[in-house]
Design goal:
This protein is of the alpha/beta class. Helices cover about 40% and strands about 15% of the residues. Bound molecules: 5'-O-[(R)-(carboxyoxy)(hydroxy)phosphoryl]adenosine and zinc ion.
């Protein structure tokens, strides 16, 4: 079964054709990073306009790269929640139009579920039951899955998402957007034990990441002997490259530790065979290494190939394939609605 997957929930316009949930026939991603980096974050209005420009060429290229025509595909899948409203509208409208005009089965997918299915794209078949850490710019969740298409949120952030925290710390340190890769990059040269950042206590399997961002801010102010009233954007000019690297490394180590400690607790409440990382932050090498170190002897551990960690259309097609296999019905493209927020998979 060949599925066209379309993704436009944030700042990547993407389309891919995937066979049977894992065999990637094409994968096209146009990122808007260069456009938004000037502003230090995603500007929703600009993102929507950029998607409008990119969506048709991206879909055309996905067909061209796969050497296929629309008649060759069996279904169309698209991200319809969660994400930026204007961005979601562009991808869903393109997908609905194609489905109606070419009379194709239509399948809306949940963005975070798609991130989890990025793990199936590298030829792996993670065994159930499993825990998936969904760690992106907008979400931080621990999901328990007993089987395909069963998703139970057992832990979530009470404030910032982990990716958002990387992005905010990058801003304090004067590193370019998106913050995650920038922090990871300079952290390679830093001492992760240089600055002690407190780990917040949160009951159960929930997270809090806003405190650690503030802890970095206070630690930088203290290091520079500046008052706590000093605005965060004024700090970067006073930091040396060595201090930036040490702060980045210390923050990254703490963020990874917070996440993996909760995953450890989750394994004590649910008996699982596999542990998966999913979402943009799963690209973080320090996190991948530490996950291996702490969990690989007792569990099968998985993370997507780097190009499938961040937003892409292949994961959308894969998620749709496994949902269809699990018996989920197709949707009416005339009836589809988008939703910026969604906690239900
Ligand atoms: O999944 P994603 O592409 O978009 C959302 O659904 O949000 O995730 C983007 C997030 C951003 O916060 C970005 O800074 C973070 O993923 N990210 C990383 C890395 N690569 C991307 N965070 C830490 N380390 C990385 N290497
Ligand atoms: Zn995403």
């Amino acid at each position: 079964m060949k599925i066209l997957g379309i993704e436009s929930s944030c700042d990547e316009t993407a389309a891919a054709i995937v066979e049977d949930g894992a065999n990637i026939l094409s994968n096209v991603v146009v990122s808007q990073i260069d456009i938004h980096s000037e502003y230090g974050g995603v500007i929703p209005e600009i993102a929507a306009r950029s998607h409008i420009e990119a969506i048709q060429p991206v879909i055309n290229k996905a067909f061209k790269d796969a050497n296929l025509a629309i008649d060759d595909i069996d279904a169309i899948a698209v991200t319809h929640t969660p994400g930026l409203v204007g961005s979601l509208l562009v991808g869903t409208l393109a997908a609905r139009t194609l489905a109606v005009v070419h009379n194709k089965p239509f399948y809306p997918t949940h963005h975070l579920k798609s991130h989890i299915y990025a793990n199936w794209l590298s030829g792996y078949q993670p065994e159930f039951p499993l825990l998936a850490a969904v760690i992106s710019g907008g979400h931080t969740q621990i999901i328990y899955m007993e089987r395909h298409d069963h998703f139970e949120i057992i832990g979530t952030t009470r404030d910032d998402a982990i990716g958002e925290c990387f992005d905010k710390v990058a801003k304090i340190l004067g590193l370019p957007y998106p913050g995650g890769p920038s922090v990871a990059n300079v952290a390679k040269n830093g001492n992760p034990d240089k600055y002690h950042l407190p780990i917040p206590h949160v009951d159960g399997l929930d997270f809090s990441f806003s405190g650690i961002k503030t802890a970095v801010l206070r630690a930088v102010q203290k290091e520079l002997n500046l008052p706590i009233t000093t605005p965060s954007h004024e700090l970067k000019d006073h930091l040396s490259a060595e201090q930036i690297a040490d702060f980045a490394a210390s923050f990254q180590k703490t963020a990874v530790d917070i996440l993996l400690k909760k995953l450890q607790t989750a394994t004590e409440t649910r008996k699982v065979k596999s542990i998966l990382l999913a979402g943009g932050v799963s690209a973080n090498q320090a996190l991948r290494d530490e996950l291996q170190k702490r969990f690989a002897k007792d569990y099968q551990v998985f993370y997507p190939a780097p190009q499938f960690s961040t937003d892409n259309g292949a994961m959308v097609a894969s998620a749709a394939y496994y949902s269809i296999q699990a018996g989920d019905p197709y949707s009416d493209p005339y009836q589809l609605d988008i939703s910026p927020r969604s906690t239900i998979y």
